[in-house]
Amino acid sequence: MKRRIESKQEPETELPGKPVSASRSEMTEIVLPAQTNPLGKLLGGQVMHLVDMVAALAAHRHSNSYVVTASVDYIDFRNPVNLGEIVNLKSQVNRVFRTSIEVGVEVYSENALTGERRHTTTAYVTFVAVDEHTRMPKPVPPLIVKTPEERRRFDEAAERRKTRLALRYGR
Ligand SMILES: CC(C)(COP(=O)(O)OP(=O)(O)OC[C@H]1O[C@@H](n2cnc3c(N)ncnc32)[C@H](O)[C@@H]1OP(=O)(O)O)[C@@H](O)C(=O)NCCC(=O)NCCS
After folding, report:
1. Which of 71, 30, 76, 24 is CA-nearest to residue 52?
2. How far is the CA of 77 from the centre of ligand 1 (A)?
3. Does the C-beta of 71 come closer than 6 Å to ligand 1?
4. Which CATH number belongs to the domain containing residue 116 in this structure?
């Protein structure tokens, strides 16, 4: 019998759950000279800006709220992106807590002349949903995870949360 893996977080709100697929987001850019260093490589700060933007899209879509970036706890530059290459960014919600949302981002470079694609960057960004009037943190819908991959990301996010909150609050 096929095992049913669909599951939802413990309800902390009355909001209906939303699947990971509902907020998955993508962005595509081409690397221009103003965004590169003297070696013709995309600046790390530009990559971080794009990561923040594509991650915010997923958090905004999941929460249907305004969101602020609370922390970026991991960003890894494995390969450079060269001038003239295409940058593809993909984001998905890994896990939500009460008012915060962890989003995972993957960045790929693409050389349109050769068709070569490379994984260049991985990042985890946490957003907090805020009420549009009070600007205070507000609860977000639970996340419904359906696939083994979504479950793995969901489980790993709990460990990362422990680390990032220990860094902020010192406990
Ligand atoms: C992020 C921020 C809203 C948290 O506010 P706060 O007063 O510490 O709020 P709370 O203690 O009530 O925590 C609210 C949520 O933030 C989470 N949080 C706080 N610090 C965090 C951190 N470093 N990393 C991840 N989540 C964090 C808390 O865990 C909580 O989430 P939960 O409800 O899911 O458990 C606040 O620090 C802030 O406004 N920071 C500036 C954000 C900003 O300007 N970003 C850049 C531009 S968008």
Report:
1. 71
2. 25
3. yes
4. 3.10.129.10
* Structure-block tokens of residue 136: 């205070």
| Segments of the chain assigned E as strands | 7-8, 18-19, 25-30, 66-77, 86-96, 100-110, 117-130, 143-145
pLDDT tens, position by position, for the chain (171 residues)?
444 455 555 546 788 999 999 999 999 999 999 999 999 999 999 999 999 999 999 999 999 999 999 999 888 899 999 999 999 999 999 999 999 999 999 999 999 999 999 999 999 999 999 999 999 999 999 999 999 999 999 999 999 999 999 988 886
Would the CB of 137 count as within 6 Å of ligand 1?
Answer: yes
Domain count across the chain: 1
If one counts every other C-beta atom within 10 angstroms of the C-beta of residue 14, the result is 7
Of ligand 1's atoms, which has the minimum distance to the CA of residue 140?
A: 34
| Segments in the chain forming alpha helices (H) | 44-63, 148-169
Cβ–ligand 1 contact at 168 (below 6 Å): yes
Q: Which domain does 82 fall in, by range?
A: 18-169
139 lines ligand 1 (CB under 6 A): no
